[in-house]
UniProtKB/TrEMBL annotation, chain A:
This is ABC transporter permease. Keywords: ATP-binding, Nucleotide-binding, Transport. It comes from the Bacteria. Belongs to the ABC transporter superfamily. The keyword Membrane does not apply. One of its GO terms (biological process) is transmembrane transport.
TrEMBL record, chain B:
It is a peripheral membrane protein. This is ABC transporter permease. InterPro entries: AAA+_ATPase, ABC_Ni/Peptide_Import, ABC_transporter-like_ATP-bd, P-loop_NTPase. The lineage of its organism: Bacteria, Pseudomonadati, Pseudomonadota, Alphaproteobacteria, Hyphomicrobiales. It holds the Pfam family ABC_tran. SMART domains: AAA. One of its GO terms (cellular component) is plasma membrane. The keyword Protein biosynthesis does not apply. It is found in: Cell inner membrane. One of its GO terms (molecular function) is ATP binding. Keywords: ATP-binding, Cell membrane, Membrane, Nucleotide-binding, Transport.
Length: 248, 280
């Protein structure tokens, strides 16, 4: 189990600053949520942590080690990301096998067949599906493949960027159950972005509410219902979510 | 109450597809709010589009498909031009894609009026400004002259609503009107739409995957699965839905403050695909 700590993370695109001194401490084995309106910078935090966006200032450490000092292999085997849209994140002309295997080849991992078969079993897909193409799978199955692709390198930390918002509720339930089970079995740490507070409530112990590139407030799960949020925007977001669920 | 829309046994078959996308859909709509819910691929949007005859790659059949005094099934394209946007209008999911990026928002609203009524540009503009005010836009003159990229998602969707209600339609089809919006403004937009629909006595078909939404903003709900209606019920009885599919959808939804036990997963059964929507 590994912890992640984000200190003074700031990002600017030209003259526009999209993240202002974001500080987050996520304990080993925790599931931490990031919520906020679109454009608030929640996905940008994940893109910085995974170095998909490398132009930022501040410090990100995993178990006390600066991610900028890690080699690509070490970083990729510590931390993996799952994207929002399973229709967009899998290459349509690559079989599931090649999607999973490429990460193993690049990171010079041996015994690839066993690792891939294990990853497929972990996410509850038949091993034969390795020879299928994305268009032969449903949305939920594709998201399982995306999770398997992240797990095949045996990371300690998963960055989940709206992992279920492109899915139907019935399929979302399957994927959320899968993520809960995997975290328990493998002792993973999750940093999960979501716009749905009910999903965060179901999954996470603590969460941060973001607005305009800043952390408005970090709250425990219980704060959703007990009204202990202090920040005005956090209160508004929680109230709107509760009202939306129980309106009229 | 005389229904404004009467659909009986509607079926839609995309050419080249082995099975019909929609089959055996029947419902009547008065000046009330009907929700159509289901998963992606259940045919709910196809029903909305079939009503407006927007499916030129599909064969649409029905025993009856009447809107007021118009037989939609046999209406000519010319007739449909005077129905679409005037008598029946449609609000789409994402204003980013449904507004023309190269035209000012106000001009697009006026255009809806000019297309369907003989009037001067000045009158159309006055009407558009009035309508912007009705969708709670504070400074209509300013917003009239903005381009779509200069407005937020919530404002864009209110502009869409203004455009669609300006011609005083009898029926509005809203296809996932708030799915692209943040939760903090979703309710605001829904309340504006709901208020106007009630005030003007417009029939509303709300197409959504979101059970919470139809529960709160509809009178009646059709639940669709694989192109068929499996259950029809009053929105207030949604919690007492009988069909295992409806119950499965409701149970799979995580709730604020809910127990953290694994979410119940929908067990699909082949019997749901039978024509009568048979269930125990």
């Amino acid at each position: 189990m590994k912890s992640i700590s984000i200190k003074q993370l700031s990002v600017s695109f030209g003259a526009v600053t999209v993240l202002h001194d974001v500080d987050l401490e996520i304990a080993a084995g925790e599931c931490f949520g990031l919520v906020g309106e679109s454009g608030s910078g929640k996905s940008t935090v994940l893109r910085c942590a995974s170095l998909l966006n490398a132009t930022w200032s501040g410090k990100i450490e995993i178990d006390g080690k600066d991610i900028r000092t890690m080699s690509i292999q070490e970083r990729c085997r510590t931390m993996q990301m799952v994207f929002q849209d399973p229709y967009g994140s899998l290459h349509p002309r690559h079989s599931i096998r090649s999607a999973l295997e490429l990460g193993l080849i690049v990171n010079k991992v041996d015994d690839r067949e066993t690792k891939m078969a294990q990853a497929m079993r972990d996410v509850g897909l038949p091993v034969e599906f390795l020879d299928r193409y994305p268009h032969q799978l449903s949305g939920g199955q594709r998201q399982r493949v995306a999770i398997a692709r992240a797990l095949v390198l045996e990371p300690h930390l998963l960055l989940l960027d709206e992992p279920t918002s492109a899915l139907d509720v019935s399929v979302q339930a399957e994927v959320l159950n899968l993520l809960v089970r995997l975290r328990e079995e493998k002792g993973l740490t999750y940093l999960m972005v979501s716009h749905d507070l009910a999903v965060v409530d179901h999954m996470c112990g603590r969460f941060a509410i973001m607005q305009h590139g800043r952390i408005a407030e970090v709250l425990p799960r219980e704060a959703i219902l007990d009204g202990s949020a202090r920040d005005p925007y956090a209160r508004e977001l929680i109230a709107a979510s509760i009202e939306y669920e129980r309106a009229i | 109450m005389e229904p404004i829309l009467d659909v009986h046994n509607l079926a839609v078959h995309y050419r080249g597809a082995p099975n019909p996308a929609v089959g055996g859909v029947s419902f009547q709509l008065g000046r009330e709010r009907l929700g159509i819910v289901g998963e992606s691929g259940s045919g709910k949007s196809t029903v909305g589009r079939a009503l407006l005859k927007l499916l030129d790659t599909a064969d649409v059949t029905a025993d009856r498909m009447r809107f007021e005094d118009i037989d939609l099934l046999n209406a000519s394209e010319k007739q449909m031009l005077s129905v679409r946007g005037k008598r029946i209008s449609m609000i789409l999911q994402d204003p980013k894609f449904s507004l023309n990026p190269t035209q000012r928002c106000g001009d697009q609203i006026s255009e809806a009026y000019l297309t369907h009524f003989r009037s001067s540009r000045a009158e159309a503009k006055t009407r558009a400004l009035e309508m912007l005010e009705q969708v709670h836009i504070r400074d209509p003159e300013r917003v009239y002259n903005l381009y779509p990229h200069e407005v937020s998602g919530g404002m864009g969707q209110r502009i869409m609503i203004a455009m669609m209600l300006l011609t005083d339609p009898a029926l509005v089809i809203a296809d996932e009107p708030t799915s692209a919006l943040d939760v903090t403004i979703r309710l605001q937009v829904l309340r504006i739409l709901d208020g106007l629909v009630r005030e003007k006595g417009i029939g509303l078909i709300m197409i959504s995957h979101d059970l919470n939404l139809v529960r709160n903003f509809c009178d009646k709900v059709l639940i669709m699965y694989a192109g068929r209606v499996v259950e029809t019920l009053a929105a207030r009885d949604l919690d007492n839905a009988q069909h295992p599919y409806s119950r499965g959808l409701l149970a799979a939804q995580p709730r604020l403050g809910g127990a953290r036990t694994p979410l119940p997963v929908l067990e699909r059964q082949d019997s749901w695909l039978e024509p009568d929507g048979a269930h125990p």
